[in-house]
Design a protein that fits this description.
Blueprint lengths: L4 E4 H4 E5 L11 E8 L15 E3 L1 H6 L4 E2 L4 E4 L8 E3 L4 E3 L3 E6 L6 H19 L10 H6 L1 E4 L2 H29 L1
Parallel strand pairs: 3-8
Antiparallel strand pairs: 1-10, 2-9, 3-4, 5-8, 6-7, 6-9
Helix pairs in contact: 3-5
């Protein structure tokens, strides 16, 4: 059986905390770059739509915070703490989201997504024990640990769980068509 190692989130890849372009400058918004915040639908696996988008001016103002497709984003504040999505294109997030640009030479994006969902449940549980607005900063987020097998096993697990999610989505679509 494959050996599972304990790794820190920081081992998975580069972690980027989002940044919001100045909202007082309307020219920053309304373009093609998705701007992901915890108020967007983070109950899906893939980000397909965001409530706001950035113009080229807005994107350039936070150019060091642009994350590529297949980044794993984790909401790290408030009641949405622990929600996880994967980007499908270059995206910018606000500062309430920590994103992992996965090192694909060592880690499978789908496996990391499902691992972050499990970690997200831990983060959310911890938030319930606090009277203040819970927040997990980049430094603390980076130090959380997960168990991880070799890449081959990660790919098998990621593929299996993804196929189950796809079947669930298909069944939901069928059920929605029956109701309509």
């Amino acid at each position: 059986m494959a050996e599972w190692k304990t790794i820190q989130v920081s081992d998975i890849g580069k972690i980027i905390t989002g940044k919001t372009p100045k909202t007082s400058e309307p020219q920053n918004y309304g373009g093609e770059t998705p701007f992901l915040t915890p108020s967007d639908d983070m109950n899906v696996k893939y980000v397909k739509n965001t409530n706001k988008s950035l113009s080229d001016v807005g994107r350039n103002s936070v150019k060091n915070n642009v994350i590529p497709a297949e980044s794993v984003c984790v909401s790290c504040i408030g009641s949405d703490l622990g929600k996880v999505v994967i980007t499908t294109e270059d995206t910018v997030t606000n500062q309430q989201i920590n994103s992992i640009i996965v090192n694909k030479d060592k880690y499978n994006v789908d496996f990391i997504y499902y691992s972050m969902i499990q970690l997200g449940k831990v983060l959310n549980f911890h938030s319930k024990t606090s009277t203040a607005v819970p927040i997990v900063n980049k430094s603390n987020f980076s130090q959380y640990e997960i168990k991880c097998p070799n890449l081959f096993i990660q790919e098998k697990i990621g593929t299996l769980l993804s196929s189950i999610d796809e079947k669930i989505d298909t069944n939901c679509e069928i059920n929605n068509n029956l109701v309509a």
